[in-house]
Sequence to fold (403 residues):
Amino acid sequence: MADHPDPISAPGHIPADVVIDWDYLHPAGIEESDIYTALKRLHGYPSDILWTPRNGGHWIVSRADDIRWVREEAEIFSHEEFILPPGSMNTLMPPTNVDPPYHARFRAVLNPVFAPGRIRKLTASTRAMTGALIDRIVPNGKCEFQRDFARVMPVHVFLGMLDLPTDRGEEFVSWATSYVHAKNQDEREWATAKVMGFLRDILDDRAANPGDDMFSRIVGFRKNPRFQREEEVMGMAMNSFIGGLDTVTNMLTFTAWHLATHPEHRRRLIAEPGIVGRAAEEYLRRFGLAVTARIIKSDVGRKGLAMKKGDYLLVVDPLAGIDERIWDNPTEIDFDRDARGHDTFGNGVHRCVGEHLARMELTLFLGEWLRRIPDFELDPEVPPVTCGGAVIGMPQLGLRWKA
Fold:
């Protein structure tokens, strides 16, 4: 795979009027605005479905109805190519990049770990840890939110679920970030080697000394009659490791960014703590994160366009939550909105296994942060920075308040 392959010529079945020069890794407009505003430009074209010669050449779906259609047609739109350019996802990572029915055996391993009842048991300890972390930040009068909170709170929770040492959290996050936001394939290969090397020792230890943690369940799959090869176990472990260390971090950061610039929303959450759960759902709708690829397995038509077997397609999932055809004033945060129908966690067979954990962490952040730091703003010395990629993010966010 070329790190940044040259644009390709459009195949003959691609109409010229749907071809745009667009790169999801660096979408036009991000420098002068933010990643969501830059992505939203896709909704300004006459055609709902577009095609770009960038990153190997691929279709682009960004409307909520098309996104749901792709997700629900798993037999047509395969997860075997989940990151573009093709070949970027350099290892088997079930259940993410495997298709039904093969994928079901891996969900059966992971689903119990993230079941609602199990997540509820983590709530009290997570609340206490979150409060203690914020208490350490408060006297400083400022923070770089990613470094001081968003890369700490959810990471500590997830490492606890894996029974891994929390004092290595920063190192683990650097590996996950290097994989998800790799600038080139060499960086992704480096991150893969780091994670794989670490996981081999961990999995061997859990095989010899099993516990109640996620890695013990994963390595236990070796004894499952449907187990085929060691790559499945290693891939499940790597998928869980990387997936748990990046996404919630960015969700928390985008939420803090909004609260820092909207004091009226802060005041209402403080005055009406009973709406915090509904507010969390609204933030989940507004700040979807994943941008995922597919390879098309059979010819299919949609909205007058012919998609061919072997074509690549990119699902711009965050735009489903800010599609004005589905949501009134979609870019506005409205705590009175019923946002439960959002697709941030996906739909169909690949719905996010960690949704209950993410929802719990975001809800606790809203309550515990505002209880301790009710009034805060952006720090002009550390301005917010957003980025594109397979998981869109905000790697920098400075906040300040009166200590």
